[in-house]
Amino acid sequence: MRFEELLEKKEAKQIYLIKQLIIAGGQMNVHNVSKILELSKKSTDNYIEELMVDLKPFQGRCQITYDGTKVAFSKTADFSIEEFERKLYLNSSKYQILLHLLEEKEIHPVRLSQELKISESSLSRKIKDVNQLLKEFDIRIWQGKIMGEESQIRYFYFQLLWYLGQGYEKSSSRETHIIESLERGLNLSFMPVARQRILLWLRITKKRMTVPNPQFRQFKEKFEPYKKDPLYLKLVPIIRRSFSFYAVEIKEEEMMLHFVFLTGMSVLSQKDFHAYSLQRSRLTPTAWCDTIILETILRMYNPQNIRKELEATCYYHLSQIHLRLYFFVGDVETYDRNNIWQLEETLSTRNIQAYVERLMELSAEELQVQTHKQNSLWAMTAIKYLSVLTIIDIRVNREVRVGIYLEFDELFKEAATNMLMLQLKSLNGVVVEPFDDTKEYDLVITNTNLATNTTVYRMTELGSDYDLKEIKKLTRKV
Which parts of the sequence belong to the Mga helix-turn-helix domain (predicted)? Predict the structure, then answer.
């Protein structure tokens, strides 16, 4: 689910336009803006004027200017467009419907339509729209209540509220006591951000654990291999004691959910995970998948080139990825995937996308989960695998040494060499310098015949994208 889907079309287009202006360097011709918005020139004029009004509360920090020909975006250094986005999201009717369901357990149509200042028929249409968003999480609103596996409902609300920065304000004394009990009982040390995540999870739990007859069937089946996990066995009595003040029976599934949350939702530090990983069974579906994927990655890069601390970092991140992939479906997307892949293509000397696809296929097979390319959890898993590989790609001891040998007048030669060095230095693992015949290189870039035993690339047109692409291909091969 992309956050923009919480908004009405007009609001989503506002955010899209601002981001396009940023990508374009802060300024665009109005005709290009009309194409982006798919509006006539007159409608575009009105649209821009409305956006300028909507940005007025941020005046001086963020603004749109328009002279009838060009549209320009500007902001102060301390302003993030997320401030404007978050305001739109929190005021959106779809978000308010979801929040109402969390707080009240069911929709009260008359009251909610009055709060949102819309008719009951409009509320009904918006609930249908919300159900489209919930579909990939395998949950839905039915007869005024949110239906589906309880694990999926809580996971959805955690993702939604976390990324909107809601629900983890200052903790109460009782909440602080629970968090400290977890630390003492499990011998863990939570970082401040982990404490915030736990606090949000506890508050969602408190609102949902009193719902009658929650569904846990699929989740419980999947959890079966983890019932003997040493961390889980320690967690059970802590949760029972900590939640004893609730006037409800503490179900076994509550402990299961807390275990998955602690181990799979970026709560454990890498140090704490390392200590836990020495005790956990390597035969659970996710632990086995962690090992298989890590070994595959090591073979991609040659194990001798990867230090143990880098290997441990990757193992930690993979454990988070696979637990979510095994127990949940759906995700909340906050990044532009296309931009991330384009950036990878620009910076990497390897075809990491092919590696990512291989890892995706392998993890689906090992975890026995269905691949849904349109599901955002799968899309974000690909980005996470990309991130793991990028960490290795940047830090692994793998250098491609490139020398530049150009025959021009001295002034132009120095300028052209510096320009090429600037372009190539952004490639991960590439060390580039002016050619020195006393040194050895993996690749030499030149514009003339050069007698050398190493791989040579002759420029076709200085500064061309074609040459840069071909040079990147060669750096992957040498």
Answer: 78-160
